[in-house]
């Protein structure tokens, strides 16, 4: 087999950050599915922070700290950046050592067209057991 597809999940940015409280990121467990069948979950942490434009940068920096934090901003008042970082995956199905895993992230228009605006694949990581990961960490620290 070339690939074992582990599932797909769709979420809007608004769904990911709807419970954001100031500078505290939201955390969600999203259900993966393949052909309508549930097959696991993925944990996502998300945080919305609007970027100040040059003309309102001074006022943004001078605002009160409680107003100058990562939080859902007003529409059409700032630019935005979507950063997706995948730092690890756990509880994947057993696989031979050396199996490679990656995550594909696709940004789609929410309108009727569902046009793909961007798609990126993460760096491919090799499969390791938790014990092997810990041994590798100790080696990097010079403790083994």
Describe this structure in words.
The protein is an alpha+beta fold. The protein folds into 2 domains: 1-83, no CATH class; 93-144, no CATH class. It contains 3 helices and 6 strands. The strands form 3 sheets. A two-stranded antiparallel sheet has the order 1-2. It is extended and about 55 Å long. The two termini are 36 Å apart. The mean pLDDT is 73.
Structure summary:
The protein is α+β, with helices and mostly antiparallel strands and 144 residues long.
Tell me which oligomeric state these chains represent.
single chain
Query: Beta-sheet strand percentage?
Result: 15-25%
Which runs of at least 5 residues are low in confidence (pLDDT < 50)?
Answer: none
Helix/strand order: HEEHEEEEH
Question: What average pLDDT do the residues reach?
Answer: 73
How many separate helices? 3
- State the end-to-end distance: 36 Å
Give me the count of strands.
6
Main sheet summary: 2 strands, antiparallel
Would you spell out the secondary-structure blueprint of this structure?
Blueprint: H1 13-17, E1 26-34, E2 37-46, H2 57-62, E3 100-101, E4 104-108, E5 116-121, E6 125-126, H3 130-140
Antiparallel strand pairs: 1-2, 3-6, 4-5
Key structural traits:
144 residues, alpha+beta, two-stranded antiparallel sheet, 3 helices
């Amino acid at each position: 087999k070339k690939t074992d597809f582990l599932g797909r999940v769709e979420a809007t940015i608004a769904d990911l950050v709807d419970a954001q409280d100031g500078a505290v990121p939201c955390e969600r467990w999203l259900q993966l599915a393949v052909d309508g069948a549930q097959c696991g979950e993925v944990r996502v942490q998300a945080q919305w922070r609007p970027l100040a434009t040059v003309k309102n940068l001074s006022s943004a920096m001078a605002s009160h700290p409680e107003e100058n934090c990562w939080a859902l901003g007003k529409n059409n008042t700032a630019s935005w950046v979507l950063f997706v970082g995948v730092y690890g995956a756990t509880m994947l199905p057993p696989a031979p050592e050396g199996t490679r895993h990656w995550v594909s992230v696709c940004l789609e228009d929410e309108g009727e067209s569902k046009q793909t605006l961007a798609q990126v694949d993460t760096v491919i990581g090799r499969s390791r057991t938790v014990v092997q990961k810990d041994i590798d960490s100790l080696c990097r620290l010079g403790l083994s």
